[in-house]
Amino acid sequence: MKQLFVIAICCCICTCIFAQTQELEQLKINLEKLAQMRLMLSQAKQGYQILERGYNGIRDAAKGNFDLHKQKLNDLLVIRQTVRQSPSLGDFQQHRTTTSQEIAQWLQQAKHLGIFQVWELVNIEAVFKERLKEMDVLSEEVQMVLRSGSLRMSDAERLQMLENINQRSFACLLLVRETIQQQKKIAVKRAQAKQDQQAVKRLYGF
To answer: Under 8 Å CB-to-CB from 114, ≥6 apart: which residues?
Structure first.
């Protein structure tokens, strides 16, 4: 009986020792996993810090480039004295004024000659109104070029645009003069046919 009791006690002791051994092994494994997790967490934190420094560097660099680019774009909206003092502006204004004056003078003369029919005078006025509208459009383009905050252009581009407008205004003036000369030739022929010497003299400016 005693032997059985001793054997039972030994079995219990062995079972307890085995269980404790298992628990120790599991605890060891858990501690190793915890250490690995801490290492992974530390590495992840270091990686995040590296990424954050890199992102901040890129963000700051991008912001600096953006601010610089924005400043350059804003500078393109500013109208400088070089542009405002362009000789093309004075030439354009002269062409516009001359065009308007020569049209007005010729229309007044054509009406007083008594050579053109009423419907012809209406057509003549319509033709010259189109030329004056062209000058108005060119004037609006000039104002747009000279208006701060309107167009993003360099000084060179603005000066070139003003020169192009000036050339177009001069072409419009030449077209008006050519049209007037053609109409004067018609008036001269009609005056000569009527033997209206006074009309001929007025047309030639005598």
So the answer is: 199
